[in-house]
Design a protein that fits this description.
By secondary structure, the chain is of the alpha+beta class. The protein has four helices and four strands, in the order αβββαααβ. Strands 1, 2, 3 and 4 form a four-stranded antiparallel beta sheet that branches. About 20% of the residues are buried.
Length: about 140
C-alpha cells in the first residue's frame, strides 16, 4: 500500500514538472516575481535590396517593441503607422548600405539602425527586438 502511494506521488510530481507554463507567462531564470514585459508586435516588413541600379533582392524582418509599462504599450500600438514608417525607413537605409541578397544579414548592425530610427520616432520604446530576419534574391 505504501509503495503504491509513493508511486502515485512521484507520478504527480513528474506530471507537474513536465506541464508547460500557461501561455504568455514565460519567465527568465530566477522566477517570476518581477515586472512582466509589455510587448507590441509589428507586422512583417519587406524592403528592397538595391545593388548599383537594380533591385537585387528583398530584406524581410519582423519586430517586437518592448515598452516599460502597459500605458506605454498602448501608446505605441496607437502610433503604429508612424512606427512602421520609421522601421521601413531604417530598413531601406540598412538595405541600401549594408545588405546583400547573397550573404547573411548582419543583425547587430540592423538592430542599431532600426533602434535608432524607431527611438527617434518614439523615445518611449524600451527595446527593439528583431524576431525574424532574412534576405532573398530576386
Amino acid at each position: 500500500m505504501v509503495r503504491g502511494k509513493r508511486t502515485l506521488a512521484m507520478l504527480g510530481l513528474v506530471t507537474v514538472a513536465l506541464s508547460p507554463l500557461p501561455a504568455g507567462r514565460a519567465f527568465a531564470s530566477g522566477g517570476g516575481g518581477g515586472d512582466e514585459p509589455h510587448l507590441v508586435k509589428m507586422e512583417p516588413i519587406a524592403v528592397p535590396i538595391v545593388d548599383s541600379d537594380r533591385v537585387a533582392g528583398t530584406l524581410n524582418f519582423k519586430l517586437v517593441l518592448e515598452a516599460h509599462d502597459a500605458a506605454t504599450a498602448e501608446k505605441l500600438a496607437a502610433a503604429m503607422p508612424n512606427l512602421r514608417m520609421a522601421a521601413i525607413s531604417g530598413g531601406v537605409e540598412f538595405a541600401r548600405l549594408d545588405a546583400s541578397a547573397l550573404r547573411a544579414v548582419n543583425v547587430a548592425d540592423l538592430d542599431k539602425t532600426l533602434t535608432a530610427a524607431l527611438k527617434a520616432a518614439s523615445p518611449e520604446i524600451g527595446r527593439v527586438l528583431i524576431v525574424e530576419v532574412g534576405a532573398s534574391q530576386n
